[in-house]
Model the fold of this input.
Amino acid sequence: MNALPSWLTDSRLSEDIEPLLRQTDDESLERLAAEAQAVTLRRFGRIISLYAPLYLSNFCSSGCVYCGFASDRTAPRRKLEFDEIEKELRAMKKLGIGDVLLLTGERTNAAGFDYLRRSVELAARIMPRVAIEAFPMSVAEYRALAECGCTGLTIYQETYDPENYAKLHRWGPKQDFLERLETPERAITGGIRSVGIGALLGLSEPVGEALSVARHARHLCRTYWKAGVSVSFPRIRPQEGGFQPAYEVDDRFLARMIMAFRTTMPDIDLVLSTRESSNFRDGMAGLGITRMSIASRTTVGGYVEAETAGASQFEVSDDRSAEEFCAALRAKNLEPVFKNWDAAYNNPLPEKERA
Amino acid sequence: MNSLRLGSYTFSSRLILGTGKFSSVSAMIEAVRASKAQLVTVALRRFNREQAEDDLFGPLSEIEGLTLMPNTSGAATAKEAVKAAHISRELSGSPFIKVEIHPNPHHLMPDPIETYEACKILAAEGFIVMPYIPADPVLAKRLEEVGCSSVMPLGSAIGSGQGLSTSAMVQLIIRESSVPVIVDAGLRSPSEACAAMEMGCEAVLVNSAIAVARDPAAMAGAFARAVEAGYDARNAGLMPRSGSAVASSPLTSFLGAGS
Done:
């Protein structure tokens, strides 16, 4: 393997967050929570920005042991045709959603770059903000997506431990640790405005993973000063394949991790998805978390008809409707915001095609 | 009380409100009413024509006597800000535009170069241009020269609550400026807003400090009174500061003492 980038092992990039992550007592947790809440309130106020995922396809060429879409899973494969994508997006829009995350598996002939590009183009005509979570691409491909109105990229390194990474990714293009690690940088270079990173928590030793994510975030902020950087905190969930994670990441550690990120990186978005329980999500909203998914389906499609064929990538834990979730936020004196972006700030789209 | 003059508009209130970060649209509207503000700013990002519940513009436009000033928050370049200004004018009908260009989406510091370029274009197009800027006296004059109707230097970083940490530079801007100087961003308490007015600001813009207060409407009222008090105090003539330069023996007794 090629040499790892120096930032990955630069402890100076994580020296402030490390002691916070290593504490285990209740008192420090409560103190950290108070600080995280104050910092969030100052910088982000009382709003939570919402987005929703749309799985375009579950075709995949990779063999990630922890994923329900890995290429050796027996569940039927499906991808949305463009007319179906449009219907799904319109159904999402009816729910109020103005910020969509389009997902695919690793690159396949069935769902490759051209399919994704056309999907982005279509989505940008309907939604003010479009982001993707898909296979790693080249700078030129990211540039083409940005020109079609793609604003954001989410890509999880899964684990920042190269040896463990090699074991967990049994075959396929995703086996290249460094290529994946450098994907956010290629996206930014290609003109994607914001990147979301994270580790799939449970795959490797959690404190080490958290430190690596922190270093990665800081490396990106420092190197690409105009790029938005956000951090997600996905914890491994039950999925087809029955993979059991090697490390348990309990609620207390996850909460501590989120709050430690908030207090040491006060102005980046921190994201929590419906992987987590309603209780945990409601509790963490405003304690560091500023961006959340709603009404998520992790099957292909799923907004037009809830019972779309096909397996899910993982099981959603918080399955409340958009209304129920928003009511819970409002009860906490937080405002759910569906549109917090405008197509005016996307790369040039002809006027008639603006969302 | 003299009016605040911005372009061809006049306002008796000198408190301008930001409308983001509130816990609900209704809390925001209550705060706007309690502040008696006549000018508020709303981000194009938060215009939502398709979902009334998520829209800030609609409910604000129903308040009588309120002028809306769209802002370009989210723009990273002059080009994007100009595009956002055009769309905002089309949607709101307001001639005001608050130019906010922050290429770094984390600290949200305004970009002086892109801001200057956007203001030059928008002022020439007839907008009432209100630029959010770093507290830089040279930039402030440059923006005045290209036709901005005010300059809005930051007191400190957006949402930092660090008050008038740029006070010395803001005073220089005020001393030199022929357009209203409005402190925007960073104010945490009514006393800081009062201090900005005493210093000679023509108005202040407040958002976070009101939006995140336990009782936003009450805080909006408190800011309104503080702004008025500061403005009145400034006009009444503040007593010179004491504590400096009191020599223990006369320094000028030699004058006229002969040879």
Q: What stands out?
A: Chain A touches chain B through 32 residues (CB under 8 Å). The longest helix of chain A spans residues 26-44.
